[in-house]
């Protein structure tokens, strides 16, 4: 067939038309994609505005202390956005959130965050971004791009706590050198009751009963009065105290407590010249006294206390590698009580914590230890290990 046959000319014309059609379709698709990339239903929002709107939305469901914890976490995100020049969250991407995750873990503070802390931080970010998706502040699907660390059981359980020996050393030191001061009483309440920092902060004079044969302290949820418990009304309870602890509290009230009322006209147990002692100050006293050098111990980090920056002021105490937060005192208390075979149900009521959490985080005994404890309890109740229908 010749090169100029009618059949070949028709074939060439058809191929040319198809190429033109494909080029036209590509052009239209490119135009659509360009319009989609430039046209957005998102409403511009700054990091600061987003954080405030989110916190206000969550305030109905959370106690104020949790709202403030969230605020501190989101402050890191706002700071990151400022460092990166991000003033409109419409522009956030999965890559940006990955960069934030790396920055938050190792560069946002003086020490690398633990896997559990990072998990909590990233869960908050996913919730935060999901909320912003709903109000058209970020692209749909961004929250799902936030990676949350997967923790093993060992990671979840392996959390620091203040040992019973260290706690006793600190309390003995306070009894000798800081007797019946606010700091001494704070340590006794945390160390003898296993309560949370918020519980100590919430106590009023009327909650302390040390003038009768039954010595106990009441914990109340009073949101209208400016103090809250983590589990709200469900966290209200009466907790017995020993005669020794009651005596120290009485001496504190009589000799060292500053007689003031708070902003709600209440009489707090732990006071300063300005009223009720702040939770942050309570934390500082725990960081302060968990520094080994503060109670005359040698520094385990080979530092000279006279030159160590972390040993100079109470505000820098939290930077000491050996200092511990208030929650570790509570965890140490629960761990010690489980080692002493105190039943989980009793601890759950006393410390306002679920039996499941106690079993997972504070019960380190093996199955033989647990069997022997059950044997002791059955023998105490029934005289042997039968029980049930056979008793």
UniProtKB/TrEMBL annotation:
- GO MF assignments: DNA binding
Q: Which stretches of sequence are listed as region Disordered?
A: 1-23
Q: Which GO terms describe its biological process?
A: DNA integration; DNA recombination
Is Repeat included in the keywords of this UniProt record?
no
| A Pfam family assignment | Phage_integrase
This protein's UniProt keywords: DNA integration, DNA recombination, DNA-binding
Q: Quick one: signal sequence residues?
A: none
Domain Core-binding (CB) positions: 45-133
What InterPro entries does the annotation carry?
Answer: CB, DNA_brk_join_enz, Integrase-like_cat_sf, Integrase_catalytic, Integrase_recombinase_N, Integrase_SAM-like_N, Tyrosine_recombinase_XerCD
Per the record, the domain of life is: Archaea
Its recorded name reads Tyrosine-type recombinase/integrase
């Amino acid at each position: 067939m010749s090169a100029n046959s009618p059949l070949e000319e028709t074939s060439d014309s058809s191929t040319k038309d198809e190429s033109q059609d494909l080029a036209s379709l590509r052009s239209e698709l490119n135009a659509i994609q360009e319009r989609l990339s430039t046209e957005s239903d998102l409403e511009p929002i700054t990091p600061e505005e987003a954080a405030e709107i989110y916190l206000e939305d969550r305030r109905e469901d959370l106690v104020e202390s949790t709202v403030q914890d969230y605020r501190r976490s989101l402050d890191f995100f706002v700071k990151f956005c400022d460092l990166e020049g991000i003033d409109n969250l419409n522009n956030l991407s999965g890559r940006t959130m990955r960069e934030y995750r790396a920055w938050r873990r190792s560069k946002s503070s003086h020490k690398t965050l633990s896997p559990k802390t990072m998990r909590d931080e990233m869960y908050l970010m996913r919730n935060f971004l999901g909320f912003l998706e709903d109000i058209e502040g970020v692209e749909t699907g961004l929250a799902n791009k936030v990676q949350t660390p997967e923790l093993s059981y060992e990671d979840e359980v392996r959390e620091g706590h203040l040992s019973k020996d260290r706690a006793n050393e600190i309390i003995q030191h306070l009894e000798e050198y800081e007797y019946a001061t606010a700091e001494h009483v704070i340590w006794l309440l945390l160390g003898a009751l296993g309560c949370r920092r918020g519980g100590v902060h919430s106590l009023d004079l009327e909650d302390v009963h040390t003038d009768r044969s039954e010595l106990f302290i009441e914990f109340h949820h009073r949101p209208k009065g400016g103090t809250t418990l983590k589990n709200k009304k469900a966290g209200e309870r009466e907790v017995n105290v020993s005669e020794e602890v009651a005596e120290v509290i009485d001496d504190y009230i009589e000799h060292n407590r500053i007689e003031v009322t708070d902003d709600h006209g209440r009489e707090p147990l732990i006071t300063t010249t300005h009223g009720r002692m702040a939770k942050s100050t309570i934390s500082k006293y725990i960081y302060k006294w968990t520094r080994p050098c503060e109670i005359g111990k040698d520094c385990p980090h080979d530092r000279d206390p006279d030159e160590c920056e972390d040993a100079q002021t109470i505000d820098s105490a939290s930077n000491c590698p050996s200092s511990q937060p208030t929650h570790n005192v509570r965890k140490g208390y629960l761990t010690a009580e489980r080692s002493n075979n105190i039943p989980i149900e009793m601890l759950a009521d006393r410390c306002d914590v679920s039996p499941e959490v106690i079993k997972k985080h504070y019960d380190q005994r093996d199955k033989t230890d647990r069997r022997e404890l059950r044997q002791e309890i059955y023998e105490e109740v029934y005289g042997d290990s039968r029980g049930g229908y056979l008793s």
